[in-house]
Amino acid sequence: MERFYFDLYNSENQIDEEGQLFPSRERAGAEALRILHDIARDEMPEGEHRRITVKMLNENREQIFEASLTMASLWS
Question: Domain DUF6894, which positions (predicted)?
Fold first, then answer.
């Protein structure tokens, strides 16, 4: 098992200090996408653009994966 960290960059930047153990980097990458989906669902923008980024780091705190989502909503 390897430890991966998931730093979140949105309206509030959150650095993952604990990390999580996963059997492979692919499983950890799937977790990064799940986190992105959950945050996007909870932070739907209202009339503005919002960018949410999850950066995945390995045990050495080196970035190895990044997933971003840009959302916008506005009334016609």
Answer: 3-70
Backbone angles phi, psi at 50, to 5 degrees: -140, 135
Of 76, 2, 6, 1, nearest in space to 38 by CA: 6
User: Two tokens at 32?
Assistant: 């990064």
* Cβ-contact 61, 68 below 8 angstroms: no
Mean pLDDT by 10 residues, the chain (76 residues): 95 92 96 90 67 94 95 76
